[in-house]
Amino acid sequence: MGFIPFTFVDWIDIILVATLLYSIYRAMKGTSAPYIITGIFVIYLLWILVRTFNLVLLSTILGQIISVGVIAILIIFQPEIRQFLHALGRQRGRFEFLSRIFNFRHRSSEKDINLRPIVQACQEMGEQKVGALIIIKQAHDLGVVVESGISIDAKVSTALLENIFFKNAPLHDGAVVINGDRVVAAKCVLPSTQQAVPKSYGMRHRAALGMSEVSDAIVIAVSEETGAISVAHDSVIKRNIEPQRLTQTIRQLMRINTERQSDNIDKK
Hints:
alpha+beta; YojJ-like (1; 11 helices; about 50% helix; about 15% strand
């Protein structure tokens, strides 16, 4: 009796499967998904035992449950699957050609955006403890987010941003999307983060962090309780940023995005 043949292709197969399982684990980490997977595995194991002992009725019932298991998994794991696909899509270096095909709008860069009215608005709203959530678009398409809000398409100004987020204004609840020097939309709905964050984080901070997890946008959050300014980018949020440092922080993140995009193009 000889050994089972093991080739280089089998090594590739194992590495790919291990990478896939690890990616799924990371996407589901911190959620209830592992417990649900354990429950599915127990049902499957029970079905095998039932078939072994030839319990016809119970075997038929469990067989019907397992036969629709794929659809059930898609429904149960919908948030985790969406988060996993978002994480996969964020690997722009590997799929740069898709970004070029689907991303028709230009990105906001240091050259075509005036940060002064944004920073001034954040400073004044922070002093008055007016909550705000501002998204500065970068390379990723934000069409879904824009469509969830109300279209504006107006030139960025301090007065406009302060009027939008005024406590009694009809558009204050939600986020503003800025592309270049234009306010594209307001009252936009953002995904909340799936990370385990401190309880001190309000809904604005959770939404800002969640948006930074699914796109390369720079998200500014002004706390309604404390007036503190936070900036979220690349799944990380920096809190209590001084207004004098806000411009520098945003430009630094823009340069990081620009360098990443340049490196991805050079590697091709």
